[in-house]
User: Fold these one by one.
Assistant:
Number 1:
Amino acid sequence: MEGRRAVRKLLLCKVLALGLGGSVLAVGPAGCSNDPYPPAEGKKVLYAALGEDPHGLDPVQAGDTLSGGIVAQIYDSLYEYHYLKRPYELKPCLAASMPQVSDDGLTYTIPVKQGVRFQDDPCFAGGTGREVTAEDFVYSIKRLMDMGNEPRGSWLLKGKVVGLDAWYDESVERAAAGRKMDYGRPIEGLNALDRYTLQFKLTEPFQQLKYALEMSYTAAVPREAVEYYGEDFVNHPVGTGPFRLKEWRKRWKLILERNPTYRDDRYPSEGEPGDAEAGLFEAAGMRLPIVDEVHNTIIGEAQPAWILFKQGYLEGSGISKDHFEEAITPEKELTQEFMRKGVSLTKFPEMVVYYVAFNMEDPVVGANKALRQAMSLAYDTEWRIEHFANGRAISAQGPIPPGMFGYAPDLRNPYKQYDVERARQRLAEAGYPGGVGPDGKRLEITYDIGSAEPAARQSALAFARDMGEIGIQVKVVTNTWAEFLKKTIDRRLQVFSVGWILDYPDPENFLQLLYGPNKAPGPNRSNYDNPEFNRLFEQMKAMEDGPERLAIIKRMVDIVVEDAPWIPSIHTVSYILRHRWVGNAKAHAMTGGYLKYRDVDVELRQRLRREWNRPNYWSLTAILGVLLAMAMILAVFRRAAPTGGP
Amino acid sequence: MNQDRIREARSLWAEAWRRLRRNRLAMVCLAVISLYLALGLLGFVPVRQRQGAGEAATVRRIDLVDWAFLKLVGPTDREESYVPPLTGRHLLGTDIMGTDVLYKAVKGVRTAVVLGGLTAAIYIPLGLLFGIVAGYFGGLVDDLIVYVYSTLACVPGILLLIALMSVMGKGLVQLCLAMGVTSWVGLCRLIRGETLKLRESDYVLAARAVGAGRARIILRHILPNLFHIVIISFTLGFSGIVLSEAVLSYIGVGVEATTISWGTMISMARMEVSRDPSVWWHLAGGAAALFVLVLALNVFGDALRDALDPRLRVE
């Protein structure tokens, strides 16, 4: 027995020694940091987080803001938004100048910048990127309209360019049969007149074409890369943009690095009042991009990203509703903790509208205007803004968000004023007194959401609660985003919640969501079709901003308010936090390649990170103390215990 | 044989009950389970509730749990968001919608009872039928059934459930159906083994010798001797079913969002814990209700197994 006890004691000592030694080693000089990144070796690196992996980096598929945000750093389009000027203004990017438009508004001629090269890539002969020509845009736009590529942005040019719809229709047939399109086939309205001149012939005036040519959907894609990489092209972007893809490990990280052959692009020296005071001109004239690398870590949950931001390992962060009170005071300013750290807060209204859509082809809600109005009256927007958005939103009254031409700040949608009594009254007028229909049964509505996330489900429960107040029973159906999209396309939904983030700064982009010919599978997901609205839309879309256009937009909004195909919910206000070492950051409502302007003070960042992440020796000492005390107690206990045994 | 002797020869069930009664922990667990069951059944008792006054008044059907909470705690106030426990009328606090957490925990019992009951109603007959058929007839039928359940058992349970739920859509009934058709394998194996043993027993041989048909042998001689397995499997399986619901609802493929269940409570509350100040009571309410039932079921199931095991009969 004595022998076994001695062995046990020795073992115990070894374990304790290992534990202590390990702990000391763990905080030794080599590993004395919680820095999650490898050393940058003199490079200027920007650290950011992505909520998930992009859904591929093919420009024609970059329909969501996350994928679009990465694609726009790698690919360039013909036009881009001025970084600093407000209201948003387009300027040439790969185009040499703004488009020359014929008098009838039907022919757009666009000169393409000379000497711009695609990034070097094995897909090109000799591995050296070749020059971009007008033919590349013809090819890229054909790709956008080829269903074989599963494009997300075909709606942009559908019905707009002569001959392009025929190409699109053929691609639908061929994609179904698994056959490829012949890209050599000419399209009447889409031509490269010479090496550097592109021409569009339109079926009708479409003044939003220039905006469409800014979006990543129409970015220049080299045919060589598409053919070389085949189906894997989504993982091998080859563009002309300021950055190129260095490394992408799914569910871990996506690293962009400076494109060494990027054209001569300079930081702007013009902007809006206040930009100079904000230090936004300090880099004026500097060659872009300013940083060498952008290191994106893919972090699915909000909590770890928030902690990394607070430790200084992410340059900026949004604020999830559950962290709001930690960062923002009830007066909507930064809390002391964040002020002390020198964090800056930018608030800016996002050009977005969230709404509850009624499927106008549904026999119950689609055919009953009074019912829709009653549901709209029972919808408690203020509660949502307070509890789901921490007050970071304004109640939407119509489809157009603030900051957009046509937005009427004084518009008060009579069916968007939360009033349960009026809602009950209207519901009775709709034929459902107390929520009970003529057949004596309680009205049941199916409400679909496109995510199983707690926030989406909470919002659905709030909808069910609001409708329950007036006696309508709601069945909530949770879908994956793909299922949800499929159901909207097939017009199988009854009532559902969606949002629209603007693509270009023209109210047409929001009003087209209600234009009859745009019904699903188009962006008009509520399948609203009002001839008067459609007529006004066609008239309005080709007009320049002015009082006449404003008057037409007002009439259109009035029609929508009365018909209530939507319950306009909220327009959100974005709150962005940034550390003080981030330079040249200006909020931009449009998705685009703005990381090229961003700067970072590496030394300041290094110093503050070190300051904020000092190893906590105190807790370590406490752990060591506890371990030692345990060892001593055990030793005493062992000695005191009776020897016993046979 | 004298009368006293006859009185002493108790049936298997009476003997098991006598032994169970001696196990104090098992009896406490049984009381807990009964309480849950009673609460669950209260959720099925309809009550007519008048809303509003005068001509606009409507009659709404609610259940007894709703009614009790309406009387004791009062209606949900949407402005009472995230009220901490032991504040005012809310014993366990409220969630973001101002709903009482205790109310949700109690409502969750009904969902659990429906889940357990319906799922058992599907998987027990399936397991019994296939188990007895395979065990009794053997040969090709046995091969076929063993092949089917071995194949099913190869697919991880949760994945199979997710696949089934994606096809059938969300809902309590769908969930019961999915769990029912995936959870009969374990029971089937046990029943098959036991039947293999029983069909060779003397009394079955005797029954066969006096000319009893297959159906009679199975129904009168084998089936009654399998019931203890079914009861143990049901008791222990019930907790597994309730846990599976929680797991599936957590990943968003369980019951509908409007159905109150412990799984949806835990799932909805997972981000609230990291709030500052933390909202822990919503998660704790759902988890505690789940934990107590699962623990009680497991302890009771173990005790029941011991009580029904003839080898452990000690006088």
Number 2:
Amino acid sequence: MLASLTFHLRQRIADWIFRARFPETPPVVLVQRRIFILPSRTGYFFAFVLVLLLIASINYSLSLGYLLTFLLASMGGIAMFHTFRNLVRLAVSPGKVEPVFAGETARFSIVLANPTLPRYAVGIKRAQILDAEPEFGDAEEKSSATFQIPMRAVKRGYLKCGRLEIFTEYPIGLFHAWSYVDFGMTCLVYPKPDPSAGALPLDMRARGEGNVPVRGDEEFQSLRAYRAGDTPRQIAWKALARGQGLLVKEFGSTASADLWLDYDALHGLSMEERLGRLTWWVMEAERAQMPYGLKLFDRSIRPMLGPRHRDDCLQALALYGLKA
Amino acid sequence: MLNQTALTLANITWLLAGMAFVIAPHALRLPFWVTGVCVAAGAWRWWIARYALRVPPWWLMGLIALVVAAGARIEYGRWFGREVGVALLIIMLCLKALEMRMKRDAMIPIFMGFFLAITNFMYSQTILMGLYMFVCVWIFVAALIGFNRINTEATLKQRLVPAGWLLLQAIPMMLVLFFLFPRLSGSLWSMPQDERSQTGLTDSMAPGDISRLSVSEAVAFRVEFDGPVPQTEDLYWRGPVLSEQDGRAWRIYPEAIRTKIEYLPQGPPIHYTVTLQPHNKPWLFALDLPAAAPDDNVFFLGDFQMRARAPVVNLKAYEVTSHLRYSVGTGLTTKQLQPYLNFDSRLNPRAIAYGKALREANPDPKVLVESLLARYNKEFEYTLEPPRLGANPVDEFFFDTKKGYCEHYAGSFVLILRAARIPARVVTGYQGGEINPITRQLVVRQAEAHAWSEVWFADLGWVRVDPTFAVSPLRINRGMSETFGPIGVMNNLIDADKLGLLRQIAFSWDAMNTQWNRWVVGFSQDRQRDFLEGLGMREVDWRSMLIWLIVAVFSTGGVVGMFLYVRAVQTRKEPIVAAYERLCVKLAKTGIERALHEGPLDYWQRLQRCEPNIAGNAAPLFETYVALRYATHAGGPSHDVRDFVNRVRRFRVD
């Protein structure tokens, strides 16, 4: 209850402080004014223990008790500087984010570059959700540390990482120092492959229009007029340059072997179900090393093979029907 | 959970080590079974960490806690009080450490450890104890740092070094708080007093009581004289006056006599300050005979015993004025003198008969006392190890063994005088003392405990008569250790040391203790007031103290914080770059300064054109620099870099 209240309060304050400033350009250096610091729960408990120590010292007139109490109190105060020091001047930049399938865990990498003294037990967590699980790491002197912030990808499309909280309680846990960064990092989430799609729809081959090559060793055959849906790769740019108009190159004679994964061919299913099956087939075709093309409502990708082609197809499926 | 990783074997071992260190001084005072429970709990906890076992279930922990608490109740017979409180705290600490499940749980034993450190100060506030507790706190902070490392394990160095820095950096602010935090006098609430055995004089004297002290090197009190130190034979430090004879022992007269007794000083006053070690008894010591009570909390009994209103449980400093020559109690009535004539007539029949016979032979009390002293002088022997005495100790001592210590002499002397109808009483205290040449203070040790007597004469009043002096004048003229040689191990060593080096060390150590007592242990409300007035605070009251405190704490904190911040943000230059920059500064003396945009080779070429000689000398340095700095494997071998740095240091432009 209290935790959630303070959480929301802190979010509001952070929103207000960082209004219209996100996303930021990396690297973000955690300078002094970006770092907040407050006693942690352990810190308040420690203060309570100090009061008990002081009462015991007063009551028994223990001069050395006073000395010990004040030593610990001063150490607590000094620890605040150390906790702050554990965060200040770290340079934060976003790392690579690999696309995932819906249902998997996306990992946002964050790189902390440390130009000075070693930093220990620095944590990073997503700031905008309650009880986010933090990731911890150390950054040795003049080196950097990479953190992977996990986040469950539920839906296809772009998954936003949101604001991140970088925090630490090192060295003695009495203070919690934190700072926010937001690079507007996103992770591309492909639709969840639907195994109920079954085997590859080889019967779809015949329906292909036979105007794209099957393999990389393209056999150029002829030119024909451009039609809507042709990809830029098929356009005969040289012919266009010669002033012959917009023509499209026609390849190969093995058109009947082309595998076309066609969105429209999947009747009676919802959009997400169709996308799930198409995703499954893309992965299957890739695994079987069988060239495949993808035909969606607004675009088609000519049959090919290879990781780049697969990623193009998966991206088209991921973003199908979503606003850019 | 991540929290689990904090309770690694190394972290647990550090925590247990801190606990063992902080409990150790208590272990000697604790009942053996409490120590046993602690060791068992610690070993169990270590075992759990070592073999990644589960901690005991809550019901088992509860059962153990109940049994142990009940045991403590039976052992001490109460729930409240210092001894039982410390025992319960230690047990709780060990059981809490046993049932730790996650990082958060580890904070409680560490914080309890800090509290236990303070309880040790109830028993001892010496320099050594202070240093020892600093080490304990260091270990606990090192453990705390280990617990706050997440996913990686801290090495020994990574624990001790930052923990040590944290504590060292805390010291300036600690001192500010210590000297400026407003002190209270007295307790917030009264605590039940516990029985404590402390070396020192008690309220009774039986044969063997004082000779038991003669081996103790413990300091009883220290004295600082405003003027010169009186002769050793005048240094009678008056303590409990024992007027009642009760079988074998002499006791304090139970009805504290508060009647004013006439006191006529017959000599110059002597001013001095006594710093008394806590002895848990109400009496204070002063040079025979104190004239005035130092403050309201001190009063005199009719027999000139100086008393505090509460037992002295903390180091106590007080100023006294005494006169070495005096006349007191000349006009006492027979009724007032009666208590000093009573004795237990059932015991020591021979001594009593002797006293009566003595009176018949010598009607003049002074002659009687003289002849009795002459007998002591002739026939008796002073020894630290007197033979054991039976049911009639005075009879056996006076007629048979004739060997004894001051309490034998004083006791038998007073008894025989009383039998002879001469008022007399036993006075206990200390005699002598040792001057520390460094501090010029007189140090009085328990070994200097002494007993003598006071005899009443109608014309003189109470007169101090020391029968021990009759037996062994050296004991009084030279002091204890010179007469009997070394006391204890420490003095044995000192005696064997011909160069006097150990004696110097001993005196320095004592001087350090004096400063420690003055500035740390004895830093009371009054001392603080004097100190702050000395600093220039005009009115020492709560408000101004609080303002001073806040200003001082924030400024020291700010200075330390700035220092830490600057060190955190500054990036140290690589040594090779720093050395090259030094080289350029040296070369700039030729008038040819390196431009900011200039690389080493461009700069050298420009130098070559203007100052070919110097450029020639510097050429190998530039070569090395370029090779080290811009070679494919950056940095180069470290010894090359060091060599380069040294060559730059030796380089001269002229």
Number 3:
Amino acid sequence: MKKILVWDLPVRLGHWLMVGGFILAWATGDSEKWRLVHVFAGSTVMAVAAYRLLWGIVGSRYARFAEFVRGPRQAVAYLKSLLQARPPHYAGHNPAAGWAIVMLLGLALASGASGWLAYQEMGGEWLEELHEFLTGLMLAVVGVHLLGVLVGSLAHRENLVWAMVTGRKQGRPEEAIAGQRFVAALMLLAWSAIGAWWLAR
Amino acid sequence: MSKAILLALLAVSAAAAAATPREMIDTYAAEAVRQSPGFQPSARRGAEFYAKRFAVSDKMPACAACHTDSPAQPGRHAVTGKAIKPLAPRAEAARFTDPAKTEKWFRRNCTEVLGRECSAAEKADFIQFLAEGR
């Protein structure tokens, strides 16, 4: 086992854009003074999540949904193996993490859509309530995700936060992905900037 | 028969959620009385509160920053530029008919414009002013 590249640049860049956008949106949610910042931050999260859906189909190996979306039984089996301190190592996402990713992407899109519709005044007060509920739910899943990252890092003696920065994890050389996908990363930046600007108009 | 019961239940639940500005003034006033006995809602104090420049926030120094000098007029969001319906119930009937919504916006706007939450007395005076005008 050595350090190999598993997360391509669009995955990492998208991840940290969502982190930044979510924190900023959460911090400014109750403020009218920061309303435009809130809408722009939330729009960025939504734009990144939308790009990630496409990247989950055409992206590099470990970015693909087909590679990491597993049934609930496998997710539970993985969690049990964690409790027994004998978790199998995955070069990419483990089955439990796969669930967190799908839920976070779904909630990012649903929360973003409800917030955007509320901002455009396309519904009543209930849209705001829905937006707040979905965002609260998303924060809860973020908490579970962070706990999973901590437990996974300890169980495998591998800094998973740093892995999301460098893209490198433990693995066999033949499991590595071929490249960073710079062009797709640039497209993600352009898409997110244009998408967030368009949504926040 | 069951339809009648259902309708009655719906009417009751709708009545439980909805309120009139008068009822909300009374609720806030009752709370204010507990803190300062003899409190009476005052439209004059409400008007002074509405017109006051708290100057805590540069973009939103006072109520009028978004709601204009006259709360019966449509307002305009000081940051986003979006239109805001009149705040006064005499101009916009839906205002101060949903206690939860009213509380939420008092909490948000007071925190931002005054730098603190509003007291029950201030809320009672505020709605009194908006309901009857001056």
